Amino acid sequence: MCTTPCKWCAADSLARAVNGIGTGILNAIVPVWATETAEHTSRGQFIAIEFTLNIFGVVVAYWLEYGLSYIDNGDSAFRWRFPIAFQIIPLLALLAIVWFFPESPRWLVKEGRDEEARYILHRLRGTTGEDAVRAEREFQDIRNIAELEKQESTKNSYLHMLFGVGSGELHTGRRVQLVVWLQILQEWVGIAGVTVYAPTIFRIAGFDTDKSQWISGLNNVFYMFATLVCVFTLDRIGRRWTLYWGAVGQGVAMFLAGAFSRLGQDARDRGDVGLANSYGAAAASFVFVFTSVFGATWLTVPWLYPAEIFPLQVRAKGNAWGVVGWSIGNGWLTLLCPVMFNAIGENTLHIFGAANFLSLVVVWALYPESNQRTLEEMDLLFASPSPWAWEAEKTFARLKAERPELVQAARKGEPDAEVGLAGKDTTDDSA
Question: Is the confidence at residue 334, as pLDDT, over 50?
């Protein structure tokens, strides 16, 4: 029977609710702000660095909890009070420095504050020479697309976005479906099971409880360093190829981890402890491989893609839909994983392995490449009435050829005068 006073349970529930709302807001806003202030050539790198720091926080939290578990044999209230209080420190630091962050120039254009947007873009990109010209091009592209979206999109509520009502050729509903299901897929490739139930997986592989917890913490350290791979590769090979090689590596690792876990249990049942330990070590190694590959690939892209592909008018709302997808996938598997592990044991890992190879087909067919394209080009990329990625690419190429004045910031070579929707020179030489 619970002996905790009801008022403390209520306070704990309230605190968790506030924490959850705050985390949801940060998850929805931070990737959007980063993509809207970064250049299109390094947008992925910025988000990847963000997730390196994110997993660093996970590592700190895990080892802090692990270390505190040894105080009074884990019976001390300090074990859970201190980690909760410790979260206040980085939050206060964020509150102090956020006042110095520049506002998103794209949001400023949407709000009609063009001169502020131009000023911030020049401060971000440069104020002299070619840097100033590129900043001005980007500003004109933002204005052009903002005007185009006002004409195309008439209804921008969350419900209208979900069903694509009133979005015209912007096809907002399709984009919502893509980001929601990409986040759900991210959980089904296996990370939900490995993150939450890694100690269970290691116990299935033959390790005792204490060693399983220690190995899980070490796995998180490898996870953090693996995210650095994405920092240097995401903008080079693109979003689709990052997901491709990640799915293959993760799928193979999941199948092998499950197979070696089964072999280890069979060997232990036969009394061959030495062979069982060898198989267990192999299974644990492939869990490490999975986590490392995930950190280098699937960790970042499902969070970057929603922040990239939505129209300016609804970009923050679109990214929020991505958070909804993550919540569905994560919550679903958090509840389902213990049932699956209890019912089918290591075969749970085989299901995750199969989900990885299924994701290859889904990404290839439905997710067009967003790498090295400006945020303003995304409306052209999703203008096709067909959901297939190859049709999106064909329509994108055709529209860029037909209306070159709409998006010029990604263009190479020497600058010409900027042409807006009205067809007149809009370059401001005094900027």
Answer: yes
Which residue, 371, 317, 376, is CA-closest to 121?
Answer: 376
Q: How far is CA 162 from CA 87, 153, 177, in A?
A: 34, 14, 7
Domain shared by 385 and 282, yes or no? no
Domain membership flag for residue 333: yes
Question: Do 282 and 343 fall into the same domain?
Answer: yes
CA dist 233 → 40, 42, 244 (Å) = 14, 11, 13
Using CA atoms, how far apart are residues 387 and 367, in angstroms rounded to an integer? 9
Cβ neighbours, 10 Å, residue 5? 9
Hey, what are 127's tokens?
């104020």
Please indicate, yes or no, if residue 250 is contained in any of the structural domains.
yes
Do residues 364 and 389 both lie within one domain?
no
Query: pLDDT category, 23, cuts 50, 70, 90?
Result: confident
Q: Under a CB-based contact definition with an 8 Å cutoff, are residues 117 and 139 in contact?
A: yes
Q: How many domains is the chain partitioned into structurally? A: 2
Q: How many CB atoms lie within 10 A of CB 210?
A: 11
Shared domain for 237 and 328, answered yes or no, is yes
* Residue 36 and residue 112 in one domain: no
Q: Are residues 109 and 245 in the same domain?
A: no
In angstroms, the CA 150 to CA 136 distance is: 21
| Residue 10 within a domain | no
Structure confidence at residue 81 (pLDDT): 82
Give the closest residue to 254 by CA, choosing from 338, 359, 349: 349
CATH classification at residue 173: 1.20.1250.20
Angstrom distances, CA of residue 249 to CA of 31, 107, 349, 354, 399: 26, 38, 14, 12, 36
Strand partners, 425: 419
**Residue 407: per-residue pLDDT:** 78
Pseudo-torsion of CA 385, 311, 237, 398, nearest 10°? 40
Q: What's the length of the chain?
A: 431
Q: What is the pLDDT of residues 117-165, one digit of tens each?
A: 999 999 999 988 899 999 999 999 999 988 888 877 677 889 889 888 8
Residue 90 lies in a domain: no
The parent domain of residue 382 ranges over 105-152+376-402
141 lies in the same domain as 247: no
pLDDT of residue 215: 84
